[in-house]
Each structure stands twice: as C-alpha cells, then as structure tokens.
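Re: your question from the hallway

Yes, I did run it. Sequences:
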Amino acid sequence: MTKGRGKGRGSPYRVQVLERALAILETLAGNESEPTLIELSERLGLHKSTVHRLLVVLEQYRLVERNQQGGGYRLGLKLFELGSKAVARLDLRERARPYLEQLVYETGETAHLCILDHGEALCLEKVEPPRSVRVPTNIGQRHPAHCTAVGKALLAFLPEPKLDDLIKRQGLRAYTRNTITTPAQLKEDLERVRQLGYAVDNEEVEEWLRCIGAPVRDYSGEVVASISIAGPNFRLTDDKIPMLAKVVIETADQLSAELGYRGASSQAGVGEVSQGQVGL
Amino acid sequence: MTKGRGKGRGSPYRVQVLERALAILETLAGNESEPTLIELSERLGLHKSTVHRLLVVLEQYRLVERNQQGGGYRLGLKLFELGSKAVARLDLRERARPYLEQLVYETGETAHLCILDHGEALCLEKVEPPRSVRVPTNIGQRHPAHCTAVGKALLAFLPEPKLDDLIKRQGLRAYTRNTITTPAQLKEDLERVRQLGYAVDNEEVEEWLRCIGAPVRDYSGEVVASISIAGPNFRLTDDKIPMLAKVVIETADQLSAELGYRGASSQAGVGEVSQGQVGL
DNA sequence: TATGGCATCTCACAATATGAAACAAGGAGG
DNA sequence: CCTCCTTGTTTCATATTGTGAGATGCCATA
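Structure:
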C-alpha cells in the first residue's frame, strides 16, 4: 500500500527491489538510533519478510551492519569505502584542507568546503577550531543553497536559467525569519555577492549562526566550490564582517590558485573590483 | 551465463537485482576510468538493457552520475553522503585528526588512522606532511591486516580464535618478499607487538615502504583503532625506528586518553620499553 | 513456565525483472 | 553526402524472480 512513496518525478524506469533497498539505506541514514527489523518494516510500510531478505543481502555486501549479536541495523562501512571513491575524483578535498586550516587559524572560526550538487551545497570538508561554539554541520551533509554563505557563493556564479531552474525545483524554504524567500530578493543578494566577492549568511538558516563564504575557481575560471567560516552572531558582528570577509576571500583565492586559476586578478580582486558590474 | 559470479559463500538469501546493482557500484569503484554502458554490461556479463535500467534508477537516486551529456558513468556523491553518515557514529575520525596532525608535525611522515573491519584495516583518516614521498594510500581504502603496521597493531590485541578465523578466511597473501606468510611467524610478530607496544611494517606490502603503528584504546580498554606513520625505507631506518615508535606510541596513548582510556599506564610504558630488540 | 519481541524460514502465487530485438542518435570515415 | 559503426533508449512477451502471509525458532524478561 502507498506504493510510489514520494520521489515525485514520474520516471520511466522503476526497479522495485532496488528502490526499496535504497529506501532502507536512506532510512538508516536519517535515523540517529539503530532501528530494528520491525521498526524498519513499519516505517517503510513493507513486510517483515521483504525487509529481512533485503537486509541480509545488504549485510552480505557490507552496506549494512548489525549492532552486534542482535541490536539494530545501521549503515555499513562499505558505504564509506564507496563514498571515498566517489569524492576521490574531486581531489579538491585534500588540496583544500591546508587552506581551511589556515582559515581556522586566522579567524578562530569553523571552516567549511562545499560544492554545488543538485542544487544543494554538499559539505566536503570541515575544520574546527580547538574550542568553539558547536556549529551544527557535518562532512557529507547537504545544506540548502539559498540561505547559506557557501550556497550563495556558488549560486552567484551560476548562469541565470540554471538558477531559475533550481529555484523552481528546490523552492526557497524559510528556516528563520531572515531567510530569503523570494527569487527577486535572492537575485539581488547574489548580485551583491558578485560585487563584493563574498557571501553572507546572516542567521538565515539558524537563529544565532552567521557565515561568510567565498567562491573557489579552477584552472578554467569556473566556480567549482566555495569555502566559508561559520560562527555565532556575537563573534561575527556587522563591524567585523568586512575584515573577516577579506581573509576568507584571500584564502579562497589562494586555493583557486592552487587549482590552477590564474585569474586576471579579476573579479573580486579584494581591493578594487567593485567598481563596474561584474556581470553575471 | 555465469550466474553466481564469485562471492563464494553460498548464502541462503539472494536478490538478483540488488546483487547486480551492487556489482555495478563495485565495478565503478574499482575502475579509474569511467566506463560506458556497454563496457559495463560486458564486464558484468549482463545485457545492455538490464544494466541500462539499473543505471537509470541508480542515477535517480544519485548513487551514480554521468560524466556530462554522454561520457561514462561514475559513482555519485550520494554515496559520499551515506558513507559520511556511516562513519559518523565512530566519531573517532574527528577526534583523532589533531593527533594525526601532531604526529605528522613531529615526525614529518604521513600519518594514518585505521580500524579493523572484517579482517582488514580500513583507513579512516590520513594526514600528509607538506611535501613528502607519496604514500600510495587513500582514505576509505582497505589494506591487508597481516602486512601493515596499522593492521598488526590491531590484530595483536584480538582474541586468538578470532585471529585464527581471520587468517583462515583471508589467508596470508605475499605482497613482497618480506611479507609474513605463515600463521606461526605472524603470531610471533604479534607477540612482539604486544611486548613493545608498537608494530612495524618492514616493506611487507610495498618494496620501499615502512610503517610504524600503535594501538588506540577506548574507555573500556579495548583496542578500537590504530595509528601509524608511513615513509620510505631511507628515512625510516632501523636505527631511527625505536625513537619514532616512541612518538607514535605517545600519540596513540594521548588519543586513547581522549577516548576515555585511563590505562594503568600499562603495556608499552613508552619510557623503558625499547631496550629490547626492535626486531624485524 | 509463560509471554512477548524479534529474527528467520517456507511456500504458492503473480507481479516483477529480464533480455531479444527494434529504434534513435551521433560521429567517423570514405 | 551517405554509410557504417558505436552507444544509448524503448518496447514487449515471457517465466524468472521477488513477494508477503503465516509458521517457526530464539532469547530475553516477567
């Protein structure tokens, strides 16, 4: 019952077992606790038997583990293995780490590296300062693009039609009262990002959380990632933001250079850019 | 044709589609290049149609991506997402990183953090020194346990029956002429690890590569991980090993303390150990 | 010993995945 | 310009494959 569980887009191809197996994985990914076979089957609206059979196979392949003689089920480490392979091709991650560390050192705030993946900001790497307010993010986590600094730093350099497409598909959900919720506002904000060279998340996703992000370009000049610092509003105050932004931009530019970007000291050259429009 | 493709262990449950889908993922994980639909179907001995259908579904769920309008297929970033969730529960990784960095700082060599997963050493984290000989390992990669320092540091604290079981299942494959290939030799070596508090990989997996590893314990005293440094034989020379081992052990002990181990300053008390032979 | 929660197994049924073959879309080369 | 070849996409009849009700087994706790 309740067959086509969400997933919206009517797609021509379906493979029931596969979809169910993946639903299991997603459920395990979503839950802190480690659900039991029956909890799982209830949550998915599937039969004990069915879920059991799938779990056994998934376990054979290490995509799923059991707590130890009995407990619940959880994601297996094979996924970590595969996931590591999936990001290995973007060696961004390894190359960016020193720069993130430098950023943490210079600002004392948590630093992130993200890429745009299917309209959301996917966090590839995070470096935290020794002791700090806990920023509620994790490596591998997705974040909405329209209300995060990393997200906006990426969106700002997307061709307009793609941007429109994303807005239409993802919507602009409100997380706090500061969240931007109309396309017009968002575009205005992105224009500011292009002019200043950095993006700000002013408590748009979490009440007390502010972020400052800047784009990272590869050898071809394309924006392929963004980095940011994140901290509580009482440390990232309005008057400090320009100064901190300068540091973030500098670091992002260094990383861009590492990736082969020989920018004509072009857009957002920190010092002097903001005279003309930077143009979409 | 060729139905039960390897996977040996005759297990009571089988779900064909799932197994095939996972075979696709494994193939994509194993290949540097990004194979095309037909290459994939040939390699798997499956029909174009079948593979295509599976790929489309896998792509819907982001487990697989295409190169961009046309190229080959490759692993999708959803796997990274799931994989990150899978290791999040062992927060080992984040907590260990500073110690690995310290280790790199103090020794100038590449540092690794591994756990024992199904008889192999799974690399959870790696930190490299600024410029160094490239150590051929990656985060997420599995390594044989019997011929690596991280592996032996873990094996040494396994109950004997489990060890025997592992040896029987994994075998002791030779990678170089230094690789230990008999259970007796291995056990002798592991005894030495227990006495000295550290394990050495003396070019047992790669001709020029040496490693020094030490176990990490959690609050309960159980060995849950190991850390190591790895470098070329001309830097990790016999005479330097005891000194370097001391550093590795100290760092491992600090990490153990961080994890809540209030060890009775027990085995391998760092200070006085090394008078014996360094062995091997 | 009874009880309940959970995992595992069996089996008849039909829904589901399968793969042959036809079609479409490019690209390369003559 | 046309043909040939490679790769991806779609369709459809078929029986292989997955399904789920229910029975059984297992191990706790009461």
